[in-house]
Specification:
The chain has 13 helices and 16 strands. By secondary structure, the protein is of the alpha/beta class. It folds into three domains: 144 residues, no CATH class; 149 residues, no CATH class; 143 residues, Rossmann fold, CATH 3.40.50.2000. The chain starts with a strand and ends with a strand. Bound molecules: 2-acetamido-2-deoxy-beta-D-glucopyranose (4 copies). It is a single-pass type II membrane protein.
Length: 476
């Protein structure tokens, strides 16, 4: 007799519906979308290597396992309940059973536009800034309740179990420290109860301790250290081999982090990469990987820092940027705008006596151009300053895009339109600007760094992004 598992695949409603089998690769399974459910009830399955993609029109889940061995039966459901699908499998772990319950709870929350929780909820996400506020809220509740992460113990500091805590790569060290803290509620006591396993290797520290002072940009040593780590844990434990890394993740904010897989892409093809450098033209897959927000933690920490948030009517600068000219986009930005315009204030170095945070706090729009890599700490700083972020980048996958609808609170300007910044921003009606500004202030909580982490803050949002990817993967 086969065990019987009801897996509900609730929330992968897409903005763009595709129904052809060949379209499966292009699905974005992690979006908690807002569109109405399509009426079609046909469930397809589609194989690509050891992955099985299950989907109805517009709904997709990925399952990892040997489909021939496990014997899949994907069946058609009645019209009206198409978003349930039944899978018979030889074995179903407790971990998978828990995830199935979480999926069911999320589906129910979306259906009833409410939530269920064992504890008092201090924050209830609502409004158009969320793609699906009910799905997101319940998913966050389920994460806090269930999500367990095993961090491998192998390896020594400072390259492993430690990372940069200050400056622009800080999120890397802060995340590692948080997740390795004895107090973290997400810590698995045993790898067998974990939903995901973490490789706590710090690319930031490898660069700092192995490459500095810099004499070579060759990535060989970086690649070797990371790959050796995977070899060690995959020899010692059964977990990596079981899924070829599909329930494993690494996390880094360093520009070089995407390069770890360059020598052996096969080894890394399933690994969830949580990266600041989320460049979709460089192997970052939004449906497998996670975009990590870049935050610049000042030397004294955030506690010593003053924030200046002026009300919209006091914001006298139309657009603001101050920073170096690294990368093509910034070179062009500085070329066109540096120290040329009162309303669009673009500086390489701030004039004496001017305060960066204060200027952000009295600007309507803050320019966030890509530098050497796609991400910029200015995106998060905009939220701290109540300034509407203007994203100027190619192929940048914005953080938390699964749940946040960035169109509601940011402006996107294509790099080739940089000469038109002033015209574009002036063309946005005041009423529209006010709405966006309000939303930016409201969303600040999702970008605040707390230690220990708190519900819905930046570390919880990163964890939630990882949780969503695991939720969309069934391991058999
Ligand atoms: C899957 O299982 C079948 C039957 O046991 C086996 O022949 C096949 O080689 C397996 N495929 C993979 C990719 O492990
Ligand atoms: C995992 O696979 C590798 C490569 O096939 C093998 O060398 C290693 O022994 C396996 N690990 C375990 C724990 O069986
Ligand atoms: C806004 O500007 C006015 C006039 O300059 C000033 O009196 C007021 O204190 C400012 N508001 C804030 C919150 O700083
Ligand atoms: C993103 O990747 C593409 C393709 O490699 C590259 O041309 C581009 O410069 C990258 N963007 C940034 C900002 O590094």
């Amino acid at each position: 007799m086969k065990k019987h598992l009801l897996v509900t695949v609730p929330f992968f409603f897409l903005d763009v519906l595709k129904s052809s089998l060949n379209g499966a690769q292009h699905f974005e399974p992690f979006l908690i979308g807002t569109k109405n459910r399509p009426v079609s009830s046909k469930i397809h399955h589609y194989f690509s290597e050891e992955w099985v993609h299950l989907f109805t029109d517009g709904v997709v889940a990925r399952a990892f396992g040997n489909a021939t061995k496990v014997e899949w039966f994907v069946i058609e459901m009645e019209i009206g309940s198409w978003d349930s699908l039944i899978i018979w499998a030889d074995r179903v772990s407790n971990v998978e059973a828990g995830l199935a319950k979480a999926r069911a709870a999320i589906r129910e929350a979306i259906r009833t536009k409410s939530y269920t929780s064992d504890r008092e909820e201090t924050f209830v996400p609502r409004g158009s800034v969320y793609r699906n506020p009910y799905g997101f809220h319940q998913s966050h509740i389920e994460m806090v309740k269930r999500f367990k992460i095993w961090t491998y113990k192998e390896g020594e500091r400072p390259l492993v179990h430690n990372g940069p805590m200050k400056n622009i790569y800080a999120i890397e060290g802060q995340f590692i420290a948080e997740i390795e803290s004895r107090k973290s509620p997400f810590k698995a006591q045993d790898p067998n109860e974990a939903h995901v396993l973490f490789l706590p290797v710090s690319v930031g520290h490898i660069v700092k301790y192995i490459y500095m002072p810099i004499t070579t940009y060759d990535r060989d040593r970086l690649v070797r250290i990371f790959t050796d780590y995977i070899k060690v844990v995959s020899h010692k434990y059964p977990f990596w081999n079981r899924t070829n890394g599909a329930d494993h993740f690494m996390l880094s904010c360093h520009d070089w982090a995407p390069d770890i897989s360059m020598k052996d892409p096969q080894l890394y093809k399933n690994l969830i990469k949580v990266l600041c450098n989320a460049n979709s033209s460089e192997g970052f897959h939004p449906n497998r990987d996670v975009a990590l927000p870049e935050i610049k933690v000042p030397p004294q920490g955030f506690s010593g820092e003053r924030r200046f948030i002026q009300p919209p009517e006091n914001r006298t600068i139309l657009a603001f940027f101050a920073g170096g000219g690294h990368g093509n986009i910034r070179k062009i930005l500085l070329h066109h705008w540096k120290d040329k315009d009162e309303e669009v204030q673009v500086h390489k170095y701030l004039p004496d006596g001017q305060d960066y945070n204060e200027l952000m706090g009295k600007s309507k729009y803050c320019l966030c151009p890509s530098g050497f890599e796609v991400a910029s700490p200015r995106v998060v700083e905009s939220f701290y300053a109540g300034c509407v972020p203007v994203i100027i980048s190619d192929s940048y996958v914005l953080p938390f895009s699964d749940v946040l609808d960035w169109r509601e609170f940011s402006v996107k300007i294509a790099p080739e339109k940089m000469t038109e910044i002033k015209r574009i921003l002036k063309g946005i009606p005041e009423k529209e600007y006010r709405k966006m500004q309000k939303r930016v202030v409201k969303l600040r909580r999702h970008f605040e760094l707390n230690r220990p982490a708190r519900p819905f803050d930046i570390l919880h949002m990163v964890l939630h992004s990882i949780w969503l990817r695991r939720l969309n993967t069934i391991l058999l």
